[in-house]
Calcineurin-like phosphoesterase domain-containing protein
Amino acid sequence: MPTRLFLVLAAAAAALLLLFWRPGAPPASEAPPSSSPGGEAFRQRLVAIGDLHGDIDNAKRVLRMARLTDKTDRWAGGNDIFVQTGDCVDRGTFAREIYELWYRLRSEAHAAGGRVINLLGNHEVMNAIGDWRYVTQADIKHWGGVDNRQHELSTDGWLGKDWLANYSISALVPLSPFPSAPTLSFQHGSLRPSFPNLTPYPDAINRLGHSLLTRALTPPLAKPYPPNPYSGLPAGTTREEAELYDGGGPLWWRGLADVEDDRIVCGWAKELQEKIGVRRVIGGHTPDFDKIVHRCNASVIIIDTGISYAYGGVLSALEIIYTLTPPFAPPANGTDEPHVLRAGEKYIEREEVNAIYPTGKKRIALEVRQIVL
Ligand SMILES: *[C@@H]1O[C@H](CO)[C@@H](O)[C@H](O)[C@H]1NC(C)=O
Ligand SMILES: *[C@@H]1O[C@H](CO)[C@@H](O)[C@H](O)[C@H]1NC(C)=O
Ligand SMILES: *[C@@H]1O[C@H](CO)[C@@H](O)[C@H](O)[C@H]1NC(C)=O
């Protein structure tokens, strides 16, 4: 029946129009990372990068590829948010340089209105408690020997201090400062919905991480294993701190990545959305050497692609571009007056999720909806 076909086509065209209609804005792939193309009242870009394992060169490559840094490795991301999900150490040689890079970029980003969010992975905590099974001799040599390495990692050293002040186990990141903002959760491994200290999220997890790390990094540090015997978690570790570090905690658990049954994983994702209100749960830890993995309509995203030369995987970054646009086109009189966001007004919320690879961008998800601010 032609009329029905026509209606279906018209509806599809209208849906497409709604999806792609951004008055005056160039396609996102052409837009510079931090600009506010015409019509958008608010724009936030976020980039997340997974496990780096001592590969400073690939770390810098990925940052440049995602346009967070320029040719000289200075922050070029403007007000972008950059999240690194831990495991910068072990397997490779240049962990120290990677931590130095985060230290510098954190200030540069801050000065430009952006933000660097650093997380601890299981390998950072392993190094803290003296489990040095994956530390290479080249890394120790590069660090000036075991004693210097331990000193810098301790509460007396720059890196120990930096970890305690500027790193956490988990991060809750809203995509705008407004109450309607979708939020993302980041941790190194998978967040388990039945983890005992899930809520209040992420404070309960981060408080335990901080106390465990303080215990581990307060001199004298555990003698490195090997060659010494493994000494386990530091003396005085509480049951809750031990739970944080065990196989079901956010540093080690892989459930959202390695359980094959989508119904189970999507059930967990839904439970997490209900318990902690996050739209997407994002982590590293379980590598896929081809691509960034997304499941359950991208409510679960795994960003470890084995970036380090120790794995020889692919360079990758996750990009999220979040915009709010007034539903009506701005006045066409050529003025560039910024739109003032007003509570109670309607906006088109657009959340574009991309994987960035050396070969280009690949769309993971696009969600467009009308919201009231
Ligand atoms: C935390 O990070 C900022 C920015 O890099 C730095 O200035 C500050 O010294 C760091 N804190 C510690 C204790 O290292
Ligand atoms: C994913 O989105 C589609 C279309 O909106 C919906 O039908 C489906 O139920 C969603 N799946 C999950 C696991 O949320
Ligand atoms: C353009 O339109 C805006 C909003 O209607 C108005 O405030 C502004 O004065 C206009 N500018 C010019 C040059 O006409």
